[in-house]
Write a structure and sequence with these properties.
Blueprint: H1 30-53, H2 58-62, E1 69-70, E2 87-88, E3 90-91, H3 95-113, E4 117-118, E5 121-127, E6 130-137, E7 145-147, E8 158-159, H4 161-169, E9 178-182, E10 185-195, E11 198-202, E12 205-208, E13 223-224, H5 226-234, E14 245-247, E15 250-258, E16 261-262, H6 263-278, H7 282-285, H8 287-294, H9 309-318, H10 323-326, H11 328-336, H12 339-364, E17 367-368, E18 374-375, H13 378-388, H14 392-430, H15 432-451, H16 454-494, H17 497-526, H18 531-543, H19 551-567, H20 573-578, H21 586-593, H22 595-615, H23 621-626, H24 632-642, H25 646-677, H26 682-698, H27 703-714, H28 716-742
Antiparallel strand pairs: 1-3, 2-9, 4-16, 5-11, 5-15, 6-7, 6-10, 7-8, 9-10, 11-12, 12-13, 14-15, 17-18
Length: 750
């Protein structure tokens, strides 16, 4: 009798970024000590995060038996009775993995609530799970593995360990020999995937989902008939899901949601459109005045505040200019095609008014303390402003919600994520030579595998393992050292407050923007003849997308979503920085703030978009699909194609942008901390923040950081609601200010 089993691949929850993991034998010296220290830090930090948010006693976490083996079938397919499969044996999750899973659950819950997709539609799909298994008795080490059941593959009936190594080198299998269960017997096995394609049912045909931009196949092997699908199902080659099946008689025909727009993105976008209309398009007719203000024409050094208009703008920009501009545009176009960038521009233009409204309110309701320091931002105007409208209870709830979200976002997305990314960027830059050697060895290994030269293959693998060990040992020493330096540099700036943060930001942000834009302009001018056609392509693809399979709504959503991640207009964070500007005119600082999305999204992102289009990176399947490049690495590859040495400069730029984001987010989190716990406790926050800057480089928290990063966008829910309620006050102030401006009542200083 044939028994059906479920295959579960072993996929570690924590990437082995820190080396070979706990199980690898440690080298002596600094590298070995570094691994032990890093692993201890990982466990301690994960426990602290988990216990602070979930409240689970540590004894319960550590009481699990790590030697126990479990099998999970919660999300695995239910194969046909004609297909025999092997069930992989997995260890019981340890404390780190358990914490990752719990935060993963929290992230999933947040996605369902705050990132719920509106206007989505249901579609029916099939997913191939065609594979062949080779097994041997668990105790028969060294013996060949024999084919369990032929499922359409062409490999021989048995494979020795050399053959397995060749398959692994050629990428035909993803992992080597591992333990599994077959008919309740423990075996060694490998799985050879034959077909994992996904097909979408449309008009009676099953169309293959192509690798890029949600496109579907048109003809040939990319289209299957009902008979083809039924035959594959009969052989057990399709995944099944009884709970989500469209037809109980066809458990392989799975219903899923597709398309739509996340709730938080629509909330931000609709808020931006509303504010633009309600303020009469001030983002357009107030633009020139904003330039005059930031140039210092109205800077009165005797007015209350801590920084100049330009320093406030630089501080706010330092938190947004960076990865969102370098990586966000690339992601938008690889996912949604060139048309997605048009909608990024549109969202950036409307977002200028969101920034104007929130930063005007930040100035209007800020608290100037006796020592001249400022407490302002959404947590202030939500509480005080709504109290004036007889909505004190709502103001208290919204301000508390915003403050908590902002603090969590500052520790995670604004600090530890930035530290982690900058550390990895510098490590990649320093180890570029060794990585090139590793890539060359991989090519030689593939060549040897194709020739079936097992002796050379074994020798090359030994050389590769030695090189990887050297790289890992260097990483164990470099990463903690980088973390200490970064934490020190963050500490000496943030302990000095907003004045020192602004002084650093006004130097870092303009300098790196100019270097980055100079490189973009060089590439654009070198291919000036292509620019008109590319601009036409951006506009035509925005309304009649041909490169994207999701239609007009789909490409619009992609662009709006990336713009929201890029400029954070409506999130409320910038209002904290702008509230510290020296002025007695809230509208004036609001005008300065609207330049943020213009510089961030319209200027810097436009440069990136044209470079990505000129180099063809957005549509390069070799880079995107085969090499798996996305975001910053793909942008770096595009620049390197035109300016060979620029990826090194880009790596430094990413690190400096990350650093500037960290010091700005420290101020945002500090002011929210002060709002909740008082000014005397802010040194506690700063100490924790500096500590997190170090830990962020050495600890990979995975879902914990995802959870914290989501807080950045969820800050928009209390903030936008408060802005809508308070927007009539802003419009009244704008009309009064503009009347006095046109009457020439404002004194000029520069």
């Amino acid at each position: 009798m044939k028994t059906s089993m479920v295959l579960l691949r072993k996929s570690p929850l924590l990437p082995s970024r820190l080396g070979g993991g706990i199980g690898r034998s440690l080298h002596t010296g600094w590298a070995g000590a570094g691994r032990q220290f890093l692993e201890g830090c990982r466990l301690a930090v994960c426990l602290c995060f988990c216990l602070s948010i979930i409240g689970t006693p540590p004894g319960k976490l550590l009481a699990q038996d790590p030697a126990a083996a479990v099998v999970s079938e919660s999300s695995a397919p239910i194969p046909s009775a004609t297909s025999r499969k092997v069930e992989a044996v997995e260890e019981t999750p340890g404390a780190l993995e358990w914490i990752e899973q719990r935060f993963g659950d929290a992230v999933s819950l947040m996605e369902k609530v705050f990132f719920y997709n509106l206007f989505s539609h249901q579609r029916e799909t099939i997913q191939f799970d065609q594979q062949e298994f080779y097994t041997r008795p668990f105790e028969a080490k060294g013996q060949p593995l024999t084919l369990l059941q032929r499922n359409g593959g062409e490999l021989p009936e048995s494979l020795d360990e050399n053959a397995v190594r060749r398959l692994l080198a050629l990428g035909k299998i993803s992992s080597g020999i591992g333990p599994g269960l077959l008919d309740d017997r423990k075996v060694d096995f490998i799985s050879v995937p034959l077909n994992t394609d996904k097909y979408v049912l449309e008009d009676g045909r099953y169309r293959k989902e192509l690798p890029m931009r949600q496109r579907l196949g048109e003809a040939g092997d990319d289209v299957l008939s009902e008979a083809d699908v039924a035959a594959a199902a009969a052989r057990g080659w399709l995944k099944t899901d009884a709970e989500n099946a469209a037809d109980s008689a066809k458990p392989y025909l799975i219903t899923e949601s597709a398309g739509g727009a996340p709730l938080v993105v629509l909330w931000l976008a609709c808020g931006a459109v509303f504010f633009t209309v309600f303020m009469g398009g001030f983002n357009i007719w107030g633009f020139r005045h904003a330039i005059d203000v930031v140039r210092g024409k109205y800077d009165n050094p005797d007015e209350p505040g801590e920084v100049t208009h330009f320093q406030a703008l630089a501080s706010a920009l330092s938190a947004t200019v960076g990865l969102g501009n370098i990586a966000g545009v690339t992601i938008a176009m690889t996912v949604g095609g060139p048309g997605a960038f048009f909608w990024m521009l549109a969202c950036g233009a409307f977002g200028m008014t969101s920034k104007f409204v929130e930063c005007t309110l930040g100035q209007k309701y800020r608290q100037v303390k006796p020592d001249g320091t400022i407490l302002g931002g959404p947590m202030q105007y939500l509480r005080v402003g709504l109290a004036e409208m007889k909505l004190k209870w709502l103001g208290v709830v919204l301000s508390l919600a915003f403050a908590v979200m902002c603090i969590m976002a500052s520790f995670g997305g604004g600090n530890m994520f930035q530290a982690n990314q900058s550390g990895q960027q510098m490590l990649t830059l320093i180890q570029a030579g060794r990585q090139a050697q590793l890539d060359e060895l991989n090519l030689q290994i593939k060549t040897a595998a194709n020739r079936e030269d097992d002796n050379q293959l074994q020798s090359l693998h030994a050389e590769k393992d030695s090189l990887k060990a050297e790289m890992e040992d260097f990483e164990q020493v470099f990463i903690p050292g980088f973390g200490l330096v970064l934490a020190f540099l963050v500490g000496i700036v943030i302990i000095g407050g907003i004045k020192r943060i602004a002084a650093a930001a006004e130097k870092i942000v303009p300098t790196m923007c100019l270097i980055y834009m100079a490189a973009c302009l060089y590439i654009i001018v070198s291919h000036a003849e292509l620019v008109p056609g590319l601009v036409v392509q951006i506009f035509s693809e925005a309304f009649h997308p041909q490169a994207f399979g999701g239609g007009l709504l789909g490409v619009l959503v992609v662009g709006v979503q990336r713009a929201a991640f890029s400029n954070e207009a409506g999130v409320g964070s910038a209002a904290i920085a702008h509230s510290a500007a020296k002025t007695t005119e809230p509208v004036r600082e609001g005008a300065v703030a609207l330049l943020g999305p213009f510089i961030d999204t319209i200027v810097v992102c436009s440069m990136t978009a044209l470079v990505i289009l000129i180099t063809g990176a957005w549509n390069n399947e070799q880079w995107v699909v085969e090499q798996g490049l996305a975001g910053t690495p793909l942008t770096s590859k595009a620049f390197g194609q035109e300016i060979s040495w620029f990826p090194a400069v880009l790596s430094v730029a990413v690190v400096l942008f990350a650093y500037s984001s960290m010091i700005s987010w420290s101020y945002y989190g500090e002011k929210c901390w002060e709002h909740l716990f008082g000014v005397r406790s802010t040194m506690v926050y700063k100490t924790l923040y500096v500590g997190c800057a170090f830990l962020g480089t050495i600890v990979n928290l995975g879902a914990v950081l995802d959870f914290s990063d989501m807080m950045i966008l969820t800050m928009a829910f209390p903030n936008i609601l408060g802005l809508i309620l308070l927007s009539p006050k802003v419009r009244a102030d704008l009309r009064d200010y503009w009347r006095r401006y046109e009457a020439g009542e404002f004194k000029k200083y520069g």
